[in-house]
């Protein structure tokens, strides 16, 4: 019998004043949680901006390799630049050219279906590493590709 009464009247037998009090407490708790979350996200954003400030604000480009070891920059490089090590070439040889190609195509109002610069041509839109439909990539198209590399690293 009691179960039927709970189902009909509801599980909360408190007065409307108590329910309003709990709604206001819930609202306060959610507001406090939202503010705390904003503060924590803001702190992490400030830390990321601090560490990437040279490439976000300055003229530096976010590359983790030595471009002087590759053509056409090799012909202009000094002996000292050629001797410096080159680590992880993926960002320079893979990601930056894809980002430049995507940026050029979008500026020309073209759909980048095919990349004619790799082998005899390769699908570009279907390539998951091109990140054509990635929401953050769509935002990064507002910037030049070298700056977009820095923003991408900072965001992630």
> How are strands sequenced across the largest beta sheet?
1-2
Question: Structural class of the secondary structure composition?
Answer: mainly alpha
Can you give the mean pLDDT? 78
Instruction: Describe the global form.
Output: flat
How helical, in percent, are the residues? 55-70%
Cα end-to-end separation: 57 Å
Low-confidence stretches: none
Tell me what portion of residues adopts beta-strand conformation.
under 5%
**What's the story with the biggest beta sheet?**
2 strands, antiparallel
Strand segment tally: 2
What's the alpha carbon Rg, rounded to whole Å? 27 Å
The helix-strand sequence is HHHHHEEHH
Total helical segments: 7
Quaternary structure of the protein: single chain
Describe the structure.
The protein is mainly α and 156 residues long. The protein contains 7 helices and 2 strands. It is flat. The chain starts with a helix and ends with a helix.
How would you concisely characterize the structure shown here?
The chain is an all-alpha fold and 156 residues long. The chain has helices spanning 2-9, 16-51, 53-56, 79-83, 90-107, 135-140, 145-155; strands at 114-115, 122-123. The relative contact order is 0.09.
Question: What keyword list fits this structure?
Answer:
mainly alpha; two-stranded antiparallel sheet
Topology (elements, then pairings):
Elements lengths: L1 H8 L6 H36 L1 H4 L22 H5 L6 H18 L6 E2 L6 E2 L11 H6 L4 H11 L1
Antiparallel strand pairs: 1-2
Helix pairs in contact: 5-7
